[in-house]
Amino acid sequence: MKWWHEAKFGMFIHWGLYSIVGRHEWVMEMEGIPATEYQKLAAQFKPKLNFARDWARLAKRAGQRYMVMTDQTSRRLL
Known about the structure:
By secondary structure, the chain is of the alpha+beta class. The chain has helices at about 1-5, 20, 25-30, 35-40, 50-60, and strands at about 10-15, 65-70. The chain is elongated.
C-alpha cells in the first residue's frame, strides 16, 4: 500500500460486455437487464488484439505509475 500511495498517478480500467452499451459495470443489475439478453452482448464483444499493450503505452507516456484492468467490481459477491 505504501508504494501505491506514493505512486499517486495511475489508471483503473473497468472493461467488459458493459462497454458495448456504454455504461457502468453494474448495468445488468441496476437496469434489470435479463441474463439471457446481457449474454447476447458477448457476440458483439470483439476486442482489438493486443489492446492492453496500446493502453499500457499510453499510460506510460502520460506518466502513470500503474494500471489495473478489471472486467467487474465485486459482481456477485454482494
